[in-house]
Specification:
Elements (H helix, E strand, L loop, with lengths): L11 H26 L3 H6 L20
């Protein structure tokens, strides 16, 4: 693992919290951008599922013969 030497220069007591904080910030930014740029995401979080429309019965195709 090439990145293992980073802990020779940065203490894990500082580096790991910064790493996890960066992950949390990126996750929040992604969720915020999805929330502000879509119309369906806010409704999804609120549980506002629209009821399915009831399909109308098909019109009769029979032709009356006299």
């Amino acid at each position: 693992m090439n990145e293992g030497k980073i802990w020779c220069y940065v203490s894990p007591n500082v580096g790991l919290p910064l790493f996890f904080l960066a992950i949390a910030v990126v996750a929040l930014l992604v969720h915020a951008s999805i929330l502000t740029n879509t119309t369906w995401f806010a409704g999804y979080w609120q549980g506002a599922a629209q009821p399915a429309a009831v399909a109308a019965a098909p019109a009769s195709t029979e032709v009356a013969v006299n």
